[in-house]
Amino acid sequence: MEKDKAPDRIDRVDARAKVTGTASYAADHKIQNTVYGLLVGSTVAKGRIKSIDTKAAEKASGVLAVLTYFNTPKLPGYTTGKDPSKPPTGGQPLRFFATNEIFYYDQAIALVVADTYERVLHAAKLVKAQYEKATHKTSLEDNLATAKVPTGPRQEDYTRGEADSYKNAPVKIEQEYYHPVEVHNPMELGSIVAFWEGAEKVTVYTKTQGVQATQKSISDAFKLPLGNVTVHARHIGGAFGMGLRTWPYEIAAVMAAKKVGKPLKLVLHREQMFTNVGYRPATKQKIGLGATADGKLIGLTHEATGNTSAYEEFTEATVNISRFMYACPNVTTRYRLVPLNVCTPIWMRGPGEATGAFALESAMDELAHALKLDPVEFRVRNHADSDPEKNLPWSSKYLKECYEMGAERIGWKNRKLQPRTNQDGDWLVGYGMGAGSFGAMRWVASVKGILQPEGKLRLQCSVNDMGPGTATMMTAVAADIMGLPPGRIIIEMGSTGLPPGPMQGGSNVTATVGSAVHDVCFAMKEQIAALASKAGSVFSKANSQQLKAEDLLFSENGLSLKSDTSVRLSYSEFFKQNGLPAVEVTKESKGTEQPYSSYSFSVHFVKLRVHPATGRIKIDHVVSCADAGTIVSPKTSESQMIGGAVGGIGMALMEDMVIDQRFGRPINNNLADYHVPVNADIPTVDVLFVNKKDPIIGPMGSKGLGEIALVGVAPAIANAVFNATGKRLRELPITRDKLLEV
Amino acid sequence: MINFDYVRVSTIKAAVDAIVKDNNSLWLAGGTNLVDLMKKGVMTPQKLVDINNLPLKEIKKEGNKLIIGALALNSTVADNELVRKEQPLLALAVQAGASAQLRNMATVGGNMMQRTRCPYFYNTDMPCNKREPGTGCGALKGFNRMHAIFTDTEKCIAVHPSDMSVGLVALDATVLLSGPRGDRRIPFQNFHRLPGNLPQKDNTLERGELIVAVEIPENKLNKHVHYLKVRDRTSYAFALVSAAVAVDLEGSTIKDIRLALGGVAHKPWRLTEVENFLKGKAATEVNYKQAAALAIRGAKGFGLNNFKLKLAPNTLVEALKTATGKS
Amino acid sequence: MAKKGSGQNQAEENYLNESRRNFFKQSSLLTALAVTPPAFLKAAEEGLDEKAAGYFEKMPLAIQINGVNHDLSVEPRTTLLDLIREQLALPGTKKGCDHGQCGACTVHVNGNRVLSCLTLAVTAEGKKVTTIEGLADGEKLHPMQEAFIKYDGFQCGYCTPGQIMSGIACIREGHANSDDEIREYMSGNICRCGAYPNIVKAIADVKKGGQTL
């Protein structure tokens, strides 16, 4: 990278690898003699496997093995049984081939291994099973009566002030909202390459958002020492949460690789991405919201019932956003689960909050309308100046700034207070907005920095980069502190064996890993200053005092004395004089408990048009504003925000995994029938950052961005649809048929 | 995918002979649908006869007819100067289908031969009378949001997915065939069929009959045209409903008109009666709405697709308004 | 291009001389029988089952990929995508759906963008294929690759090879004359990270640059 490039808007550091096709994703790793595995799924949604006929498959050309319940011994780690209270990332409650029980449609009943991909594709089709069928339950709405309180923490009912007091408010609304199953569908398919060295050591390339978590899962399942399991995931092709746990298919692939004694590659079909690796659960919500006549909230009740699987409890913070988002004295939240014959859900971008915000921010819009108030003004009137749930001050909060800058950019003044009064030919024009929030977290990370004599800095951490630009962020932080051009910084990441980093989830990575990079760089400068102070060095000759890092200038050319820049040394000279091959520093860095409440905030504004005669909808403009603390890498951060808006557009307008309840199976589990946005759906998306430092969370003052980019987008669209048409749509997605008028 | 034999042919005769000789063989053109169906196990030919080398790619004018070779690519048709000038409705319809990459692969003949996108047809563990006669229609009481509102049977309520065919049926095209018993011409309108008692049969081709070309007669319908496709996203999605409109206007009077709907039946749905109603009438929204009411007569919803009973006439009105500049 | 003729003739010959082909099949089987273990013999005796059938179904394929000529032997059912990824070690082209529903596998065949997942490799006989690996001229990136970096036209990078191949073709086809036209003609390439606005900027910028692509 050219050295005169301003460090504050650096290009994505792995961009060159990505545009040349040299960035390697799990299935791209080529190992000599690799064989191919493929899962065969159950054709029933509930029951027991009576028998499996694998003869034809085993006879098919090139087939090496067919693993099933009937021929596969349980793994040594499969002893703990079900543990519904364990968080889903903590274990593997469903294990392929360990039971003959069928919990959901397309649950793997066999894994076929063959020497070529074509052969395994064919052989997999030859496996036939007989089932003892049982009656399945796959509809949330039909089974609401069986809803139960989940056992996990932070899921119990919550009341602040008086329960359900919205009912007594002078102005109130009470409405139900529904969100169907939404599937992550990263473009990369679930993929793993596994190979064993002997019976005790295994290496995998896999699609995970945390190599160490996968390492732990594999080591637990096979009872191997952690160090015998190596996991690589430098590049993953998006995940949005589906890589936050180790899925049964990954363990099954590792089993199969062991059985055939060869490197094995298993890539899921797109269909299996809908059925076997989680999704955002369907959720029915009810909001009761009441205010005084002048628009001060009195009571808020938020109830949600989401689905989980028949074998595990999956929970998310769907209702929790209602506890802190607005200043409201009386708040009640209730959260329930309905177990269904489907795979366990998994967190999907803005988990819980995105679903909850659809209901809450729609309800806020509904109440603003009932109050004849501008929805922005209504929110400002109920701004929470401190966290009303935890009774703590915010570590930082610039939500009002977001309202202001976004309203200005979208042209909010052109919005009509009365819906359906803004027409452009046959099209109805509407403006809407929705706010979002997500906890700003800083976890633990270790980073190792190695400054090499040629003035290159290597940074190592096991964290990976599913697309938000983690490597670029790390580079930006280090470049700034070390005075190095970004091109001189080398990031080594995404593998076990490197200093441990966090999972890539919950928007924590910039605060967690960025802070560790920060700490490493400062420690490195201090260490260099100490070396420079040693007797005999040119720096100590020119400056008899003990040198501090701030007394030195660090640049790609080496070191110089701030007070006299003619006193300088290249790093290679400096290291040679100190008899060092390089300077190495490893630091562990973590957040500490603070008497503050930390959240990131976003506000999304949308302008759109609806053609009521045909139900067509066209989004004209999106403005997404974020209070995410200091923006370390503006270019990649903007992309992340744009991506969140696109995801929110999908959630609002098209995404819906449909299950044919008669068969208990999804009917649109492919990318032609399950619609995600295409290029033509997406208008100009303007991204505005407050870009003010959070003084508490960490040294750079950066809060998370990935989740808030999406949380609040869907209600902004639903609210704009209401403003355009006067139609309040409380069930997502808002498809053409719902907008159609005579 | 099962393994299969593959041969290439370079004459029409060899192509026809190959298929006639072997009951388990199929022609391969662009492959965008066939290869997909083979991957899914929906179609399992034991031999593919690659016809891409046949000299059937040309688009030309012969007398007062536009002849489009069956192997002309969809993208070639959409971008072809002659087509855009003389039959712009066809260019619009073709361009509304699939994606740029798929249009670069798919041929005219292959587009006509597309199978339905009904999910029950596509999934081999589901009931489907089209794929496996006698197993029932999964869509009838299932997820039938995309399905037909005009049908002659409840054995199959699938729709034909082609946009191009909606344009061609509107333009009075003729299909030119070559088969074991010589050449044959079928009016495009009679090419695709309603399911009746044979839902497995999409069209009226006989075994061994190869589509050689489509022929469109000259018309004065190239000034006021529109193809409106309403779908679940802005592009790269199959139609909920589409409307093909071509009008010959004299002042504000409709001198001649062609209308067809897509996404409503097992075949592209020509609206001859509606055309007759509008001929000689003024190009007004009032007349369009009356026409649309006529167009939807006899339609029936099956639950999730009931909205099409509204969407279809509204789409037709909208397409008419856009074509004649009345919107 | 001489290869093209011969491959085609051979295929046709195979077809037109069905009896010869049958003989060829049988003799292949005999050869196979001579060198295979008893288990195979037993399978073969039970009728020409799958295991036996696998021994002879490959076709010759002469294909040029990124300027390199390959003389290969492939099964007819092998897609161009699986051929280049699994057999030719060119993993830059990605599999996103395997059914023509996402565009991740877009490559150029004779200069046109097509989906390699729905292209049977044997149908590319005698053709020139360009993948993402064939765009840069040594260290010098293709203008579209430069533009994607400049405008950050991706996040995870997985759909990027397909987007870039498609973007180049979009300009070549003459369908990059406005942002809206680019949006429509790039809608066959799904980007789940949602980099669309930046992709449009990158393509518009290359189009404006006016280079021959």
From TrEMBL, chain A:
Q: Which InterPro entries match?
A: Ald_Oxase/Xan_DH_a/b, Ald_Oxase/Xan_DH_a/b_sf, Ald_Oxase/xanthine_DH-like, AldOxase/xan_DH_MoCoBD1, AldOxase/xan_DH_MoCoBD2, AldOxase/xan_DH_Mopterin-bd_sf
Q: Which UniProt keywords apply?
A: Molybdenum, Oxidoreductase
Q: Which SMART domains does the UniProt record give?
A: Ald_Xan_dh_C
Please name the source species. Segetibacter aerophilus
Q: What is this protein called?
A: Acylaldehyde oxidase
Aldehyde oxidase/xanthine dehydrogenase a/b hammerhead domain location, by residue?
A: 20-135
Record's Pfam families? Answer: Ald_Xan_dh_C, MoCoBD_1, MoCoBD_2
- GO-annotated molecular function: iron ion binding; oxidoreductase activity
UniProtKB/TrEMBL annotation, chain B:
Give me the segments passing through the membrane.
Answer: none
Q: PROSITE patterns of this UniProt entry?
A: FAD_PCMH
User: SMART domains, per this entry?
Assistant: CO_deh_flav_C (SM01092)
What the entry lists under InterPro entries is as follows: CO_DH_flav_C (IPR005107), CO_DH_flav_C_dom_sf (IPR036683), Diverse_Substr_Oxidored (IPR051312), FAD-bd_PCMH (IPR016166), FAD-bd_PCMH-like_sf (IPR036318), FAD-bd_PCMH_sub1 (IPR016167), FAD-bd_PCMH_sub2 (IPR016169), Mopterin_DH_FAD-bd (IPR002346)
Using the record for this protein, list the coiled-coil segments as residue ranges, or answer none.
none
MF-aspect GO terms: FAD binding; oxidoreductase activity
Task: Name the source's superkingdom.
Answer: Bacteria
What are the protein's UniProt keywords?
FAD, Flavoprotein
Show where the FAD-binding PCMH-type domain sits. Answer: 1-221
Q: What is this protein called?
A: FAD-binding molybdopterin dehydrogenase
State the organism named in the record.
Answer: Segetibacter aerophilus
Automatic annotation (TrEMBL), chain C:
Record keywords, A-Z: 2Fe-2S, Iron, Iron-sulfur, Metal-binding, Oxidoreductase
Question: What Gene3D superfamilies has UniProt attached to this entry?
Answer: 3.10.20.30, [2Fe-2S]-binding domain
Q: What is this protein called?
A: 2Fe-2S ferredoxin-type domain-containing protein
Coiled coil is among the record's keywords: no
For this chain, one GO molecular function annotation is: oxidoreductase activity, acting on the aldehyde or oxo group of donors
Which Pfam families does this chain map to?
Answer: Fer2, Fer2_2
Instruction: Name all 2Fe-2S ferredoxin-type domain ranges.
Output: 59-135
